[in-house]
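Hypothesis: this fold can be encoded by more than one sequence.
Test: take the structure tokens below, design a sequence, compare later.
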């Protein structure tokens, strides 16, 4: 028995019923990207049943170019998040079986965004001062403050609409390992505030030509409850993590990990693990959609990345056997045609491919944790406290 779970980071289908509470009413990542580029050509996703999902959602928004399949290869549905929040950790933890209520602490946009006592403790324990102290998007804030940070050897510390304490540093001036140590310090300091993630944002270069590197690390708040990863690991079922999964789940319940930094290397890692694993659960995050195109408001780049993933799937699907299950979903939205530069509260797609088995509609699932419950049922372990298996 092998189960592959792939999260297409930020690939939402349309604003959720509670999107107005998050200021996201009207957002629709996939449909709006398709409109903006004159239609998407995703033959593999279409064959699986991606185009069959919009008609079963509360507010159907077609994906231009991706029509419903007459005989979809995968069971298809959508999922509505129930936890408070629209960030990466909240989405992945709910997929893993948890329910966050209340959600993580959000810092105000500022400046200043952070409490004085938090900043003072961070500066004292790291030995360096900070710049920023406000909500910002990563590339613009580095362009704005990178020269001063480089010249003065300071951290750029900023937040966003998510529960994050982000630390950017020019690693040509501040060594990468020192940045990671600073994040570990910040993680402990942020725990009493219940902050979802501390994120290392390394960059390098000179004014006018700063570039973020792929050495990002996420330091997540530790969950109080065991996720599906830990429950499987506890009964000796191997758990494989690809991408930032190990960071999101605070390195808990993972047997093997490949901390890749982009979609291409993540896809290669999935292939490599699939080639060696006889049984087990593989959990992968494909980050480029969110990191490179959603936050940077680049619908064309987003569309091209979807096409590339579609092509990769066309080669990966034939390697699966009748004893395998592939689940494809997302953790939130990030509509690059929408206002701002933050995540959007959206329903997300659900595709479940089991070679040789009949496909069916899975409806709209209220709670991402139905995935964890389904994985538990596939492996025959004790059920989780919440969720309904769709298998």
């Amino acid at each position: 028995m092998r189960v592959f779970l792939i999260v297409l980071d930020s690939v939402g289908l349309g604003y959720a019923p509670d999107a107005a509470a998050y200021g996201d009413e009207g957002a629709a990542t996939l449909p709006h990207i398709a409109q903006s580029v004159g239609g998407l050509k995703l033959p593999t996703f279409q064959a699986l049943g991606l185009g069959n999902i919009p008609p079963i959602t509360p507010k159907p928004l077609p994906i231009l170019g991706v029509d419903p399949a007459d005989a979809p290869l995968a069971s298809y549905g959508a999922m509505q998040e129930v936890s408070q929040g629209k960030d990466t950790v909240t989405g992945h933890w709910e997929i893993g079986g948890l329910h966050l209520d209340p959600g993580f602490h959000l810092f105000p946009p500022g400046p200043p965004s952070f409490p004085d006592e938090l900043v003072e403790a961070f500066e004292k324990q790291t030995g360096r001062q900070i710049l920023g102290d406000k909500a910002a998007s990563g590339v613009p804030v580095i362009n704005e403050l990178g020269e001063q940070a480089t010249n003065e050897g300071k951290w750029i510390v900023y937040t966003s609409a998510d529960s994050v304490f982000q630390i950017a540093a020019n690693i040509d001036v501040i060594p990468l390992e020192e940045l990671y140590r600073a994040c570990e310090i910040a993680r402990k300091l942020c725990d009493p505030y219940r902050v979802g993630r501390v994120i290392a944002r390394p960059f390098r270069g000179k004014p006018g030509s700063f570039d973020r590197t792929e050495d990002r690390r996420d330091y997540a708040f530790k969950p109080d409850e065991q996720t599906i990863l830990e429950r499987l690991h506890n009964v000796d079922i191997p758990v494989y993590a690809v991408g930032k999964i190990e960071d999101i789940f605070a390195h808990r319940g993972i047997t093997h990990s490949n901390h890749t930094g982009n979609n291409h290397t993540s896809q290669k890692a999935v292939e490599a693990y699939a080639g060696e694993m006889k049984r087990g659960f593989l959990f992968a995050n494909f980050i480029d959609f969110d990191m490179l195109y959603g936050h940077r408001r680049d619908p064309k780049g987003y569309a091209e990345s979807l096409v590339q993933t579609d092509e990769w799937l066309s080669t990966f699907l034939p390697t699966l056997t009748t004893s395998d299950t592939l689940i494809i979903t997302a953790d939130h939205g990030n509509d690059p045609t929408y206002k701002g530069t933050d995540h959007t509260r959206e329903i997300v797609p659900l595709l479940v491919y089991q070679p040789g088995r009949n496909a069916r509609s899975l409806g709209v699932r209220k709670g991402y944790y139905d995935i964890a419950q389904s994985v538990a049922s596939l492996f025959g372990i004790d059920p989780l406290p919440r969720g309904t298996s769709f298998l």
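The two ends are 14 Å apart (CA to CA). The domain at 116-220 is CATH 3.30.70.1250 (Alpha-Beta Plaits).
Hypothesis status: open.
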